[in-house]
Amino acid sequence: MTIIDCQNLKKRYKRLNALEDITFQLEEKKITGLIGRNGAGKTTLLKILAGFIRKSSGDIQVFSNNPFNNLRVSANSILVDDQMSFPDSLTLADILEVAPDFYKRWDTELANNLFKYFRLNPKQLHSRLSKGNRATFNMIFGLATRCELTMFDEPTNGMDEAVRSDFYRALLKDYIAHPRSILISSHHLAEMEHLLEDILLIHKGKVIFHQSLEEIKDYAVALQGPTDVVEKMTVGKEILHTKQMDSQRKYVVIRTEDVPAIEGVKIHPVTASDVCMYVTSDRKGGIDDVFK
Amino acid sequence: MDLNTDSTKPIYMQIAEWIENEIIADRFLSDEKVYSQYQLAELFNINPATAAKGLTILVEEQILYKKRGLGMFVAPEAKNMILEKRRNETLTRMARELVHEARRLSVTEEELIQLIKKCEEEQK
To answer: ipTM higher than 0.90?
Structure first.
């Protein structure tokens, strides 16, 4: 079943086209990574999906409804981000206590166990939490809602290493126990790619690709060897990235095809994270070129 | 076991190989049930769909068979099939690399055969 259907979705802020043309469908009960550079439009897309802001044009259906001002979407989805706000008249313990009134699938046991595990203070106010603890609390809240569509916008920002890896593990375990549709945005693809089934890569408000993680890993390979040999091999090919290793050797990333094996040239795999970085790059070199 | 996420080998292939290794080591016996995609996902901390892909490969190769609603089981001839496959693929590849390296080091065919025989003796 399709739970999200976007057709030519556009969002325009006063002077900025945040989303140029977004078309994709999301099948239910998959974990999908929403990947993109800073300013790609990830947050705008998530806010439209959650019904927080209105689209400018195009079509968007979440659970077959336009999400903006829609009760069905609000009740069955959650967007966890660092702007989540809770009333200051409630302590963290109070928030967890009233949550089941808003989310019918709320899991009290999971919420309480995670709350204790991460040693949060039940008497504290949400607005007084440190950045890391606020991210942790929001994550607990998001997981415990068990919403059919659970969205996380950069959930691990502010979390330390240990909490991050605990978060990813908790997400996976709870997903296995209660499969649901999870959309998670991050700059850090490498640290969460093992969790993902699909990747939705957006750049400058457009979808670059929406594929399984394995397909993205097969997208490109890197050749490394003597500069003249590597250059000869890559003539006429689409070059995604190049790097001069030293005076004699060059590193070039090209689309995966049958690259002839040539003595002295090594073929390396390119990680999904690097593929995403290269295809969304407007330049072919790297930061080193700035200092030439 | 840890998976190597940087390896050229896709994770689902590594899962398939791990199950094969368990079968070779007699930790999964013929007609015994193997782990489900969810158990594998939890064990290796990976997406269940990736784990399922690893199982599917083994079903296609008839190393595992499916029982509807019950899960995946080890085929009676699985161990022999894996050993045969590894002999054909892995050993051939290693032999090729060996010959390649020998040539690079100007080791003659004669010398290489002597070397193999010597190693054979040492293992006896």
So the answer is: no
Q: Hunting for tokens 């981000």 — which residue is that?
A: A81
Given a cut of 70, is residue B6 above it in pLDDT? no
Distance from C-alpha of A171 to C-alpha of A20, rounded to nearest angstrom: 31
pLDDT over threshold 60, residue B1: no
* Residue B41 bridge partners (DSSP): none
Rounded Cα distance between B8 and B16, Å, is 15
Comparison of pLDDT for B44 and A279, the residue scoring more:
B44
Cα R_g (chain B), whole angstroms = 18
Closest of A198, A147, A156 to residue A175, by C-alpha: A147
Q: Which two tokens stand for residue A176?
A: 């296995």
pLDDT at B2: 62
CA dist A227 and B118 (Å) reads: 42
Do the Cβ atoms of A43 and A20 come closer than 8 Å? no
User: Contacts of residue B3 in chain A, CB cutoff 8 Å?
Assistant: 194
Closest CA in chain A for residue B50: A197
Q: Which residues of A touch B47 (CB under 8 A)?
A: 31, 172, 194-197, 213
Whole-prediction pTM: 0.85
Neighbour count for residue B38 (Cβ, 10 Å): 15
**Residue of A194, A268, A273 to mutate when probing chain B, most B C-beta within 10 A:** A194
CA angle B75–B78–B79, rounded 5-degree value: 145
pLDDT at B5 over 70: no
Pairing type for strands A239-244 and A249-255 reads antiparallel
Chain B interface test: which of A29, A196, A214, A274 (most B C-beta within 10 Å): A214
Alpha carbon B90 to chain centroid distance?
9
Cβ <8 Å between B53 and A214: yes
Is-contact A120 A131, C-beta < 8 A? no
Residue A11 in 3-state DSSP?
strand
pLDDT reading at A261 higher than 80: no
Half-sphere exposure (CA, 13 Å, Cβ side) for B122? 6
Q: Cβ–Cβ of B46/A195 closer than 8 Å?
A: yes
Does A217 sit within 8 Å of B47, measured CB to CB?
A: no
Q: Which residue has the tokens 């994270």?
A: A273
